[in-house]
Amino acid sequence: MPDSPRAATAPRLPSLTGLRFAAALLVFGVHAYSFIPVGGFAHDLGHLLLDPGDLGVSFFFVLSGFVLTWAARGDGPAPGRGLGRFFAGRFLRIYPAYLVALALAVASKWVGDLIDPVGNRMNQVNGHNLTTSVFLVQAWFPDDVTYLGINPVAWSLSCEIAFYAAFPLLYPLLRHLAGRALAVAAIGLVALGLLMPLIAHLWVDPDYQRWFVYILPVTRGVEFALGIALALLVRSGAWRGPGLPVATGLFVANYLAVNLLPHQVRDTAAVLATTALLIPAAATADLTGARSVWRHPALVRLGDASYAFFLVHLTIITTVMTYLGRSHDYPAWQAVPLGLGFLVVSYAVAMPLHRYVEAPAMRLLRRRRRPAAIPAPRAPQPDRVGVG
């Protein structure tokens, strides 16, 4: 996903960049597991370790709200720049790399048609899918042929575009809450996220419940708003939560237990509470200088390229698997090297995309941004409470 804490002014939060790599790896894992058929023990292990990887998207949505808030100052999202320059910056952050990846996905469909001309691939290129993909509005359509069109992962960017449009409204609203009220708001947003499947069950047509809970930008905006509230708590010194080792352990335990939950809850909200602990814990570790494995330079470098990696990995997986075929199970000794090969190739494509397209656009964005110092978190006041 696009937002990166390295885009913000000092103090930097490199642990969040390292965690971006981990979240992208989770998403990659579920797609590799979904497209490489395996059986027996390998299938069961993949179900435990890889199948919940789509919940990495929830992590990205919370992180997006957090890092945009971390970079914002004053009453608006872009003090001294205005909304026009704010949205221009968001355009530079998303679109250059996205359009290159979209062109790659279109080319992959052409290759797939040559390999398998009678294949029933849902995400075919047509005028409707191309239009909704170019303008990143596919998530607003309830049919999976549209919201998974051409490059299926791009539905999440359709949500991000909606989040950016809402940020100038959400940020001032939450910023003016006091510490206690802000903590209550954060807890309420977690609860609302957990209640979304029930809301869908009660008031949404069964044919559209999956779209409402998992795809619809309005629904997923709860996670984005939660990220805003968490960043404000950390920035004000009002955050109260476990340290990074405990928060990481809670998240891992939660992740491994996801498939034991009812599928209605499992789809989006299953790790929301522990994500709400992990992101502030990582940020606080950076601010206080506490030990954090996520600050390792290799993880930060991989995290820097995670957006480009996210954009291209599924295109690579589906193109190769169209050639290899999915009509039979692959033994573990074939499936594991194949998955690792997809990982290496995806980053081999993502690194140049990041270096020559995404990074130059970000340098242009930074030249357009007026430097602003971010003060260290204030000591908590007696009337302030946090989450946790």
Automatic annotation (TrEMBL):
At the highest ranks, the source species' classification is: Bacteria, Bacillati, Actinomycetota, Actinomycetes, Micromonosporales
- Give one GO molecular function term: acyltransferase activity
Which superkingdom, per the lineage? Answer: Bacteria
Keyword list, A-Z:
Acyltransferase, Membrane, Transferase, Transmembrane, Transmembrane helix
In this chain the Acyltransferase domain maps to 15-350
Which InterPro entries does this entry report, sorted A to Z?
A: Acyl_transf_3_dom, Acyltransferase_3
Q: Which residues cross the membrane?
A: 21-43, 55-72, 92-112, 153-174, 181-199, 211-234, 241-258, 270-294, 306-324, 336-357
Question: One Pfam family name from the record?
Answer: Acyl_transf_3
- Recorded protein name is Acyltransferase
Tell me what organism the protein belongs to: Asanoa iriomotensis
